[in-house]
Amino acid sequence: MKRPVLWVIAVAVAVVAVLSLTTSPDAEPVRLSHSGVTVQLDKAGTGSVTARVEVSAQAVSLFATMPAMGHLTPEIIATPEEPGSFRASGELFPMTGRWELSVRADSRVVTFDITVK
Questions:
Q1: What would you report as the CA-atom Rg of the chain, rounded to the nearest whole angstrom?
Q2: Nearest-5° Cα angle at 23, 64 to 30
Q3: What are phi and psi of 9, to 5 degrees?
Q4: Residue 15: DSSP 8-state
Q5: What is the pTM assigned to this prediction?
Q6: Higher pLDDT pick, 12 / 52
């Protein structure tokens, strides 16, 4: 009788642990700006992130690197919403820690340091 109860508890603990590693419900919006590029992230957390980028450019994309671990995320192409305003959604930060968020605006790349919780 005790083994099924322990099994259910073990599974519940495992599910909670996995969800806490893959989602960031407490992450707050972030605004980053320098060198003529402004980025607004809906959260500085793991999982899918929406970024709004303001920059004078024809094409914009975003990617992130985690220097401590050697991780590099695939580049996410932003969609123009109006002149100078772009939007991109996707997984930029697969894990918590210190990241470098890079915005490619035409041939120029601007990088921001960000801590993901």
A1: 18
A2: 55
A3: -65, -45
A4: H
A5: 0.76
A6: 52
Q: Are strands 76-77 and 97-105 parallel, antiparallel or unpaired?
A: unpaired
Question: Which tens digit of pLDDT belongs to each residue from 44-91?
Answer: 999 999 999 999 999 999 999 999 999 999 999 999 999 999 999 999
Query: What is the C-alpha to C-alpha distance for residues 65 and 113, in angstroms, rounded to an integer?
Result: 10
* Residue that has been written with the tokens 């041939």 in this structure: 107
Residue position matching structure tokens 């992450």: 27
